[in-house]
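Progress note, sequence design subtask.
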């Protein structure tokens, strides 16, 4: 419940901010911002490498290993962040986009470092969800206050990128401070052998996350290169609503992951998995039907008449939202039960079909 409260509150605030930005920046400005976000998320994943899921799973199984894991993973992720941001800067230099979009990518790219030392995975493994909620709500409130005060027109798109990045650093600093207070300052520790063992397990999960992100973001990247900023804005307006609709799936994943990881008795594992599956179906199916009926009034209410071209994409994408609940219900158990390679294979096949289509 604490995680649900924090996630719903932060997403509700974020949704209001997003609606304000879509109207204030206009379709072109909103399209630029959405395109930059879609690019940067892949570079964030380069520092994740499945290590968040790995860390949560290991801490849930052996809480006493938490401190050692933080030392190892924090060092690895910070080094990966330096490499990832360097690659992004080269890509920005080569990219055939306007200067505003390039500057926006530079600012949003700093998110890589915020995520490198974000310790949500540590507190999730210990099931201290209230700390995660506090971090997410703080980020959302900080972002909302400064957006509503500072962003007044389409010329402020760069300011949006700066504020978005700053709010992510705030959330990371907050959890980092809580960790230090309860434990001590993490130590940077280079252990190639330990890293090799962790990455051997985590990389299939990391690759699957990249494939899943292809489902959500590569459309925006391709539209950003092939079509106008306005088209990217229309498409992303529809997708922002979808991201709200699949919020319960994210909550289910976060809540059930430690329980599925920790349980060793097969009868208990079966019961937890069945509960996970039932709740996922009960939430997912109504979303598909409800989204189809309410797409037009919802789009016009949130974004206004300028985004009427978002209605048809939203009607199609609502069924994708329904399927995500089913995929999560079957996919997460595979990850926590050591079936990373099978999960990755299925996700990769789906991503390939998506891009071929």
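Output:
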């Amino acid at each position: 419940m604490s995680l649900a409260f924090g996630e719903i509150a932060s997403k509700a605030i974020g949704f209001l901010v997003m609606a304000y930005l879509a109207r204030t920046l206009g379709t072109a400005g909103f399209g630029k911002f959405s395109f930059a976000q879609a690019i940067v998320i892949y570079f964030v994943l380069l520092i994740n490498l499945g290590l968040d899921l790995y860390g949560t799973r290991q801490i849930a199984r052996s809480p006493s290993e938490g401190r050692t894991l933080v030392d190892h993973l924090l060092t690895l992720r910070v080094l990966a962040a330096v490499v990832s941001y360097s690659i992004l800067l080269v890509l920005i230099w080569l990219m055939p986009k306007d200067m505003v979009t390039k500057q926006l990518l530079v600012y949003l790219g700093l998110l890589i470092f915020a995520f490198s030392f974000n310790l949500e995975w540590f507190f999730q493994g210990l099931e201290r969800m209230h700390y995660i909620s506090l971090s997410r709500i703080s980020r959302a409130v900080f972002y909302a206050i400064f957006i509503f005060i500072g962003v007044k027109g389409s010329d402020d798109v760069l300011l949006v990128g700066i504020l978005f990045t700053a709010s992510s650093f705030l959330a990371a600093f907050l959890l980092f401070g809580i960790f230090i207070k309860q434990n001590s300052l993490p130590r940077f520790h280079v252990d190639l052998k330990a890293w090799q063992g962790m990455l051997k397990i985590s990389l299939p999960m990391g690759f699957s996350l990249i494939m899943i992100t292809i489902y959500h973001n590569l459309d925006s990247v391709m539209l950003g290169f092939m079509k106008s900023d306005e088209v990217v804005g229309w498409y992303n307006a529809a997708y922002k609503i979808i991201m709200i609709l699949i919020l319960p799936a994210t909550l289910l994943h976060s809540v059930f992951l430690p329980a599925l990881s920790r349980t060793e008795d097969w009868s208990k594992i079966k019961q937890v998995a069945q509960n996970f599956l039932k709740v996922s179906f009960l939430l997912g199916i109504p979303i598909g039907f409800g989204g189809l009926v309410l797409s037009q009034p919802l789009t016009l209410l949130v974004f206004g008449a300028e985004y009427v071209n978002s209605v048809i994409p939203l009607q199609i994408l609502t069924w994708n939202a329904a399927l995500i609940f089913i995929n999560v219900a079957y996919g997460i158990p595979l990850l926590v039960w050591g079936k990373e390679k099978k999960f990755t294979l299925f996700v990769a096949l789906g991503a390939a079909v998506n891009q071929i289509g």
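The mean pLDDT is 81. Work on this subtask will continue into the next period as scheduled.
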